[in-house]
Q: What sequence folds into this?
């Protein structure tokens, strides 16, 4: 892989006239004009990559009664200018892709300007499986092409070069617009790249937020040096960086369960203490806490993909994106999140 590049977004950080409260507890009125989201050009990809996206992993928690809310959330996101939608064949056993396809079809005649990203499961990495997964995702999404197609995670039993070779063939056929990976280490990226001759890996989607950052992890430096955009998942630490759980509310089991080691009982009090200090910083700087979380990531060259489960969250997150905290505030936030004392 060649083409050294440090991803830089255009049009990010445009100040917004509407500011949510630091805790994002009060959504702004839906009539407030959404901020420009911005794009990140990616060499070798058919379309520029939007700087902020909606993640469709836990939308509606997959129960039928939440379907209307899920669709309303996707619809609101599209209406308010979000174009990057992140899903996967494993999300809700295909339901996430299907709902996205339905909303885009109804709301926007197929959403030709949407940036649709989906993923092949780590259990489907053999070439014939990859092809079948792409065909099935296209059918569920109701599209002819997937803008960005990721390998959801490495499988030590799979030959990653073979998997990527199969993906390159689908890229040449136009079924996928660009190829990416997720949860890949430097070794995985190097092994995978061996399968590509003309296409390149344009994205690595990893867990990344102010608290969950593993500063010593070499993968981000590798990606920066090889022009691979980092997509940051779990950017809001499952709501903690919206100010949740800071006033005594306990973390629900379902959030705890799917939060890796994040909300382990021995870790939580320290996290809450640092998140409270971040909230105080946000109040002092008169910016939303979520703005600090999002723009700290953007400043690292990462593109956050936020999970949102209701339309008001779309408004609130967009309003937070529209407020770019000063660098000095982001520097202090960085130090607080690392546990440094003033
Ligand atoms: N590649 C991978 O392996 C991988 C793994 C995990 C996630 N992802 C992707 O990344 C996306 C986001 O990650 P994530 O869902 O783990 O974490 P996240 O974005 O850090 O947190 C999402 C949660 O924050 C809460 N939230 C969102 N907006 C809010 C607001 N304005 N105010 C208050 N709370 C708000 C919502 O909780 P409630 O729903 O409870 O209201 C939402 O479910 C996923 O949807 C998925 O697309 C990828």
A:
């Amino acid at each position: 892989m060649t083409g050294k590049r440090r991803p830089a977004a255009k049009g990010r950080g445009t100040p917004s006239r509407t500011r949510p409260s630091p805790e994002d507890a009060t959504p702004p009125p839906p009539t407030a004009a959404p901020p420009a989201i911005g794009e990140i050009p990616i060499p070798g990809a058919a379309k520029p990559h939007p700087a902020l996206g909606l993640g469709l992993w836990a939308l509606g928690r997959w129960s039928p009664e939440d379907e209307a809310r899920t669709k309303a959330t996707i619809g609101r996101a599209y209406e308010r200018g979000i174009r990057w939608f992140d899903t996967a064949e494993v999300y809700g056993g295909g339901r996430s892709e299907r709902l996205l396809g339905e909303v885009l079809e109804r709301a926007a005649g197929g959403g030709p300007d949407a940036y649709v990203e989906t993923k092949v499961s780590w259990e489907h990495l053999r070439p014939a499986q990859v092809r079948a997964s792409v065909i099935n995702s296209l059918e569920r999404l109701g599209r002819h092409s997937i803008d960005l197609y990721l390998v959801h995670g490495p499988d030590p039993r799979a030959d990653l070069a073979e998997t990527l070779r199969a993906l390159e063939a689908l890229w040449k056929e136009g079924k996928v617009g660009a190829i990416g990976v997720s949860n890949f280490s430097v070794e995985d990226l190097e092994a995978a790249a061996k399968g590509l001759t003309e296409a390149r890996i344009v994205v690595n989607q990893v867990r990344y937020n102010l608290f969950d950052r593993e500063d010593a992890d070499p993968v981000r430096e590798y990606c920066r040096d090889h022009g691979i955009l980092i997509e940051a998942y779990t950017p809001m630490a499952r709501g903690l960086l919206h100010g949740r759980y800071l006033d005594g509310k306990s973390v629900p089991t379902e959030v705890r369960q799917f939060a890796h080691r994040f909300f382990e009982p021995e870790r939580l009090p320290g996290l809450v203490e640092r998140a409270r200090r971040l909230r105080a910083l946000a109040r002092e700087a008169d910016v939303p806490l979520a703005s600090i979380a999002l723009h700290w990531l953007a400043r690292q060259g990462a593109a956050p993909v936020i999970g949102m489960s209701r339309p008001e969250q779309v408004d609130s997150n967009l309003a937070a994106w529209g407020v770019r905290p000063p660098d000095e505030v982001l520097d202090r936030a960085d130090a607080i999140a690392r546990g440094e004392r003033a």
Q: What stands out?
A: Confidence is low (pLDDT under 50) at residues 1-29. The first helix runs from residue 67 to 79. The radius of gyration is 19 Å.
